[in-house]
Each structure stands twice: as C-alpha cells, then as structure tokens.
Design brief:
Elements: E1 5-9, E2 12-16, E3 38-40, E4 46-51, E5 59-66, E6 71-78, E7 87-88, E8 100-102, E9 104-108, E10 116-123, E11 130-137, E12 141-146, E13 154-156, E14 163-171, E15 174-182, E16 187-197, H1 201-207, E17 211-222, E18 230-248, E19 261-272, E20 277-287, E21 291-306, E22 311-335, E23 340-354, E24 358-362, E25 378-381
Parallel strand pairs: 16-19
Antiparallel strand pairs: 1-2, 3-15, 4-14, 5-6, 5-9, 6-7, 8-12, 10-11, 10-13, 11-12, 14-15, 16-22, 17-22, 18-21, 18-23, 18-25, 19-20, 22-23, 22-24
Length: 394
C-alpha cells in the first residue's frame, strides 16, 4: 500500500499531512513511498512540496545553501532538465567556511550507475529548523550545513534509491523542515497499457493515408517472330524489410533506458488478403520487444505464352504502407514488494508493411502507371534452367 508520511522532529515525532505545492496542493500527500520522515521544526510557517512523480519523472539533483546555524535554501532538479523553485533564500551573512561542512553545493546523479545510496539529515540542535544535509551516491558526496558534532543524525531510508520528491516548510531564509520521498521498492517490471491515439483506423483508411500501390518488378517480352509460339517466364524472389516500433517519447522517466513490454491494442497497418491491399487496424500486442523487424518476400512465376503477337508486358505490384503516429498510455510499474505504481506517458508508433504481390501479364502496355517501389533488399530471378531470358524494363 502507498502511504502518507510521518515527520520526525528532533527527538519527537508527529503526523505530517496536507502538504501544499504551488502546482498541486496534494502532490506530496500520498504516493509510492513509505517510512517517510522529515527533520526540523514542527511549527511550519509555509508548506512546500516539489515532485513530478505523477509524470514518472524523478529528482536527479539538489542544490543547498547554509550558514553556521541552518539550511537556508534548497532547490531540486528533475531528470527532464527542469528545476523546481528555490525554497528559502540565502542571506550571504558572511559565515566562515570553517563553521560549516559546506556553505553551498550542488550534486547530480542519474538512474544508471550513480544512484543515491545514503541520506542523513540533522536538525539545527534547537528543534527550530533543518541543520545539515548529507547525501552519498555511487560516485559522489554532498554535505551542506552546520557543524553538527555529536548531534544526532537521522538516517533516511532510501529504499530503491529513486527520489520522487521532497517536502517541508520554509520561513524567510530558513528551511524549517524537510523530508525526502523515495520510491518504496525496487522495480520488478514495467509495461505500457491502455494505448490511445488521436488517429482512428476509419479516418486513416478513408484518406488512404500512407498507403499506395507500387510496381516492384516489370518486364517487356519481345518475340522475334510473330508466328513463333514461345514460352517465357516472368518471375522473381524479391525481399523487402518491414518494421514496427513502439517508443516512449519521454526518456527522462523513472525507468529510462530500461526494458519494458507493450500490452494492449496498438494502431498499425494490416494486410487485406482478399484484395492484396493494406488497411489500418488495431492489433493486439503483448511483447517485450518494442522494435520488431521482419521481411516480406514477393515470390511469383508466370508462364508467358504468346501466339501471333510481337510483345507481352508483365508487372508485379504490391501495396506499401508507412505510418507514424503518436499515442498516450499508462505505465504500470510492478514493484518488488508486490505493489504497482502507475503514471501516464506518451510515445510514437512507426509501422512499415508490404501487402501480398499481384503479378499479371498482357499484350499491351498497362494504362495505369504506378510509382516504382524502392529497390528490394535482395532479389533472385525465378527462371527455370533452359528457358529463354527475360529483359527487364525500368
């Protein structure tokens, strides 16, 4: 279960709820965190909350300012490159560096190879404000605030090491209280479900958007003598690549760079076998491979028989489709402790497909000119040994 949080103040503790945020007063009230504690003053002047957990975007940096008595200001930085507001105000009171661990410092981390491993917070020793912040990642250490000596330190549970938000209270140039909101458990798996697109199959099919019939192969047969009956072969193996990819647009979320599976119906291009054509349709997908590549091979053989005619024209045609669209969907994170955390995301779908080939021959040029297909990945003529050669046109 997700929980609201408790606040530890010096040697005491009390419930800390109803936190406010300039964007959303309830943003930090509950979420995928547990065992949350804030350190500092119980009597809060102005409450604050900084989080983007509803969008799946974690905090990946913090900056803080201090004097010899207290933490004066903090600011958080998110994985999407944005920064939260500066909370508090450094007053440049001339505090000597010898009286603090550091007066000012910023630290940044990421989701791969440099995560948070330890957090410690101290009060100011009087129960009226936050005194010191210490953060250790895989590669660096952040330590800003007063010299605490033998003063009690509070170890904050980092759980997964993924920081989703921070909250507390502030008065003028003093951070009265602060707590961190860590994702409560390691991530076991991720999937995207409930895909929605602004396009519909009906709209796309009506416009035939991105769909066209193309000539993949054509040949012109010229018989040397009008009275000569001869058989020629019109045939080919031609292979074309096809692909479909479903991508998440936001690369700055909690699971950036991790594997995920797509589950649900996704808009794409489908074959209409009865007419050799293509159309748009929803296709059910349940795969961990979100970029799929394959190939379509056109294989055909026609015996070209002609009596009393000089020329025969043959061609092979196929429908080609290319679609690029946007979708929104729900990310479902399954946590190691059995809970699930969801948020909305958006992305793109790209689909290229070839329909079945249709080969035909006739004794006059084709009236309807079609665009030529791009060169196939590979070709192999279909002509049995001993048969006469075919001249390819175009």
């Amino acid at each position: 279960m997700f929980s609201k949080f408790a606040t530890v103040i010096g040697a005491g503790a009390l419930l800390f709820s109803g936190l406010a945020s300039a964007a959303d007063p309830k943003a930090c009230e509950s979420g995928p965190w547990t065992d949350v504690h804030a350190i500092g003053n119980a009597k809060i002047t102005h409450q604050w909350c900084d989080t983007k957990h509803a969008e799946g975007i974690p905090i990946t940096g913090i900056e803080a300012w201090a004097n010899e008595h207290t933490i004066q200001a903090v600011q958080f930085y998110f994985a999407d490159g944005t920064a939260g507001p500066q909370i508090g105000m450094p007053d440049n009171d001339g505090t000597s560096e010898s009286k603090v661990t550091k007066k000012h410092q910023r630290i940044d981390w990421d989701m791969a190879g440099n995560q948070i491993k330890q957090v410690k917070l101290w009060g100011n020793g009087k129960g009226t404000s936050l005194g010191r912040i210490q953060i250790r990642t895989d590669k660096e250490e952040f330590d800003v605030g007063k010299l605490t000596g033998k003063q009690q330190a509070f170890d904050i549970k980092v759980n997964s090491g993924i920081l989703l938000g921070a909250y507390g209270g502030v008065k003028d140039s003093t951070v009265e209280v602060m707590g961190f909101l860590f994702l409560k458990s390691e991530i076991k798996s991720m999937s995207v479900e409930n895909f929605q697109t602004s396009d519909t199959p009906e709209q796309l099919n009506e416009k035939m958007q991105g769909l066209q019939e193309m000539t993949s192969h054509e040949a012109h047969y010229s018989l040397e003598f009008k009275n000569l009956s001869s058989n020629s072969w019109f045939g080919m193996d031609a292979t074309y690549s096809t692909s479909k990819s479903i991508a998440i647009a936001n690369s700055h979320t909690i699971t950036a760079g991790g594997s995920w599976s797509a589950k649900g119906s996704v808009l794409g291009i489908a074959e209409v076998t009865s007419t050799y054509s293509l159309s748009y349709a929803y296709a059910r997908t349940d795969t961990e491979t979100n970029e799929q590549t394959s190939s379509t091979t056109f294989k055909y053989q026609i015996v070209v028989s002609s009596v009393g005619t000089q020329d025969v024209w043959c061609r092979a045609t196929a429908w080609y489709g290319k679609y690029e669209g946007e979708w929104t969907g729900q990310v479902v994170l399954e946590l190691e402790d059995g809970d699930k955390f969801t948020y909305m995301t958006k992305g793109t779908v790209k689909d290229t497909k070839w329909g079945q080939v249709n080969a035909e021959c006739q004794e006059k040029p084709f009236d309807n000119a079609l665009p030529k297909a791009p060169a196939p990945d590979s070709t192999r003529p279909q002509a049995p040994p001993g048969k006469r050669a075919v001249a390819l046109i175009g």
